[in-house]
Design brief:
This protein has 196 residues and is mainly α. It has 9 helices and no strands.
Amino acid sequence: VYWKLKKFDQCISAYRNLIRQFSDSDNSSVQEQVALAYHSIGNVYAQQNKFDTAIEKYQDFIREFKNHNSTVVQRQVAKAYYDMAIVYGKWDKSEEQFAAYQMIVERFKTSKDSEIKAELAKAYYSIGNFYENAGRKNEAMNAYKTVVEKFEEIDDQETQSIVFNAALSLGGLLYDSGDNLGMIELFLKFTNKNQY
């Protein structure tokens, strides 16, 4: 409620009270809510454009929960890395943003969880964009190819949009490099799998 009303101080206070009251609980569902509260504090600061504090809170959350055994908590950790990357981007800290995307890949590249895979797809796609903008076309193609090959089975709309955009970007780079056959094969494969 506080978030919707943009009462950010009250929102942070409510999250901190929840954390203080329940952080010692042995109940896994309660611990998942505590983790969500930790992560959400970073989001509140990001919403207020308090980027340095938002980054600090995401880092605190990740440090506290990165080894937690709950899949639900690990989803929050993956999202916190991604949110941290977005904040670095808004703060014009592109090297740190790129590093945060790479942390998602390194930490979660073998995950079987579809929600974590969705965060991975976004990270790989963003890495591809970074490489493409830097003129590092081979690395960009590899990142886009990873998105197309590894994440096309994820059935949520956002991830499918990322896969589609990665295929378009990969196709454009194949075309630019003179690999017209590769581009055509990619689009034929992609359109055959995604006919409506």
